[in-house]
Amino acid sequence: MSLTSAATLATLESTGPRRITDLAVLGGVTQPAMTVLVRALEESGMVERKGDASDRRVTLVCLTEVGATYVRARRRAGVHEFVRLIDKLTDDEAEALAAALPALLHLEALECQDREGLKQ
């Protein structure tokens, strides 16, 4: 699976159903490219398209249970890999990594704020 496909699935998992245009902006790709990507994800059962109850003209891309399971499995694999690598760090390196956590959490919060701004 491409990085853009995986990122799109993760976005849908964290933000909920989105328009293709929103996904294209978030993914840094054109709308036609995102349409092709969504079609492939749809064919693999990872996403589905549904109408927006508040605006019948709008179609939303939604994560399916298959897609959600994939995202969770990929996230777990990433966590296990990080744990494996962190175990190889020296004590000083592990302390430096722990000291960087507040800044990393702040970056995550800023990124979430940016995503929320795109929802509006």
What does this structure look like?
The chain is of the alpha+beta class. The chain has a domain at about 5-75: Arc Repressor Mutant, subunit A, CATH 1.10.10.10. The protein is about 70% helix and about 10% strand. It has five helices and two strands. It has helices at about 5-15, 20-25, 30-45, 65-85, 90-120, and strands at about 45-50, 55-65. Helix 2 packs across helix 3. The radius of gyration is 17 Å and the shape is elongated.
Task: Furnish the topology, listing elements before pairings.
Layout: H1 3-15, H2 20-27, H3 31-43, E1 47-52, E2 55-63, H4 65-86, H5 91-119
Antiparallel strand pairs: 1-2
Helix pairs in contact: 2-3
Helix content: over 70%
Average per-residue pLDDT, rounded, comes to 91
Structural class: alpha+beta
Radius of gyration: 17 Å
Q: What is the overall shape?
A: elongated
If helices are DSSP runs of H or I spanning 4 or more residues, what is the number of helices? 5
Concise account of the structure shown:
With 120 residues, the protein is of the alpha+beta class. 71% of the residues lie in helices and 12% in strands.
Question: Which terms summarize this structure?
Answer:
single chain, 71% helix, 120 residues, alpha+beta, Arc Repressor Mutant, subunit A, 12% strand, 2 strands, 5 helices
